Amino acid sequence: MKDVIYYLIRERRLGKKDGGGYFLYTDGTWVPDRKNVIMDHLMGYDPNDNSPYGFCSLSIMDEIEEIPESRALQVMNQK
To answer: Is the model's pTM score more than 0.90?
Structure first.
């Protein structure tokens, strides 16, 4: 059985980790997260932070939540 983790970003954008890759639900299909949106949120990366690091921003990390598959299916059906 493959482990899939679903995420909801900013209470509206759906993402998932499937195997070793991250994907965003866009226009009714799963597309690779080439801009690292999910990982940036999980790591708290703040592109507006002027420090040389810009990681572990709690406000950025609070924008993403892990959700169950049932909730992910609800979000997909709403779009």
So the answer is: no
